[in-house]
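Quick one, probably user error.
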């Protein structure tokens, strides 16, 4: 993983759906919704244990996948239009909507802070920044090392929350590592021994998070797992802060690889739903805030302890799956993915880039079909097991 393969610029290649990527998106989206649904219950050890385990790797997982699917970004007309239609427009809609709701119920924020995402919008802002900086990470000689150093040093200084910049820098290594992934990497993670070790690692860390939820919270608050606070805000000095974040990077990467190892390779119902995680991500926050502010749901269920946590997880799974169904995608696609053809020039007028069809910004599992390398048997095309 020392360098990126050069971009294909001369051969127009067809695209295919890769079931593995959609499956990965499906399972990590379940973790996203579960994690957000437990936020108000972390005062309880049972909820904090699950929350800690989920937040230890679920966003690094998502960011790494996003980096992998950004490998073909070159900034052509079509890709720029997709950035606007699937990142900027949804960001403005979601961030404005969420701030309107919280202002209605809580009176905050007093003034709109559209460029300072309060919750879900941070990931869209991060994707926007990461995508635009992709050429830099392709040009650097040591991009992964550079990204890790930036992440470790970011916690030392005050960084304004403009476009979620603290989290953008904190999680940057996973995006850059994703850029360096190849299909062969995912294939090797699917080996039987690796999958057994991965299951033991994920299961073992889940148990540890449950057993030590209280003691860990007293020493290391879960805010560490949000990748945005300064070290001194978390009660750590510069050296200790760097050491803790470095450890979290290692843990998150190990758990991410383990989760990637266990993702199914074949097509199934999760593949279909996984192609619609975009809508689930953008909409589930509105459901959670409405249930919390309008019905005070989490205040009502908190006295039920572990039963409330289990019920919350089950409901989160149901809501997540419903938001990934076809009717939801049909209704919200024109809103969150406007074509905007009236706003941009015809991609065929782009004389600065190849006319190849590059994957979309969110990249719903689209991958290039590439011919086998000369050092591989001709009957085993690259990535055949990921389809």
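Nope, works fine. Designed sequence:
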């Amino acid at each position: 993983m020392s360098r990126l393969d050069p971009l294909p610029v001369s051969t127009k290649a067809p695209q295919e759906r890769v079931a593995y990527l959609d499956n990965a998106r499906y399972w990590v989206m379940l973790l996203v919704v579960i994690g957000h649904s437990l936020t108000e219950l972390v005062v309880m050890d049972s909820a904090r244990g699950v929350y800690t385990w989920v937040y230890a790797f679920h966003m690094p997982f998502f960011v790494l996948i996003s980096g992998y699917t950004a490998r073909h970004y070159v900034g052509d007309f079509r890709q720029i239009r997709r950035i606007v239609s699937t990142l900027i427009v949804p960001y403005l809609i979601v961030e404005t909507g969420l701030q309107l709701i919280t202002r209605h119920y809580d009176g905050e924020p007093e003034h709109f802070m559209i460029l300072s995402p309060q919750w879900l919008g941070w990931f869209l802002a991060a994707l926007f920044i990461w995508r635009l900086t992709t050429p830099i990470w392709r040009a650097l000689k040591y991009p992964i090392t550079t990204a890790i150093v930036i992440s470790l040093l970011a916690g030392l200084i005050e960084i304004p929350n403009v476009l979620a910049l603290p989290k953008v820098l904190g999680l940057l290594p996973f995006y850059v590592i994703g850029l360096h992934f190849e299909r062969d990497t995912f294939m090797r993670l699917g080996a039987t021994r690796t999958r057994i070790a991965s299951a033991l690692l994920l299961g073992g860390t889940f148990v540890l998070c449950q057993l030590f939820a209280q003691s860990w919270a007293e020493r290391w608050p879960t805010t560490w797992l949000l990748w945005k606070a300064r070290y001194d805000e978390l009660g750590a000095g510069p050296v200790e802060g760097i050491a803790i974040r470095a450890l979290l990077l290692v843990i998150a990467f190990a758990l991410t690889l383990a989760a990637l190892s266990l993702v199914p390779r074949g097509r199934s119902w999760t593949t279909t739903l996984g192609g619609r995680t975009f809508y689930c991500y953008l909409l589930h926050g509105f459901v959670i805030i409405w249930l919390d502010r309008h019905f005070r749901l989490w205040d009502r269920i908190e006295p039920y302890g572990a039963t409330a946590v289990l019920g919350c997880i089950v409901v989160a799974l149901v809501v997540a799956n419903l938001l990934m169904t076809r009717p939801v995608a049909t209704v919200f696609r024109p809103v969150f993915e406007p074509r905007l053809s009236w706003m941009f020039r015809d991609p065929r007028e782009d004389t600065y880039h190849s006319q190849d069809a590059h994957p979309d910004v969110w990249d719903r599992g689209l991958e290039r079909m590439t011919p086998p390398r000369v050092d591989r048997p001709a009957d085993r095309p690259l990535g055949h097991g990921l389809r």
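Residues 6-15, 364-387 have pLDDT under 50 and may be disordered.
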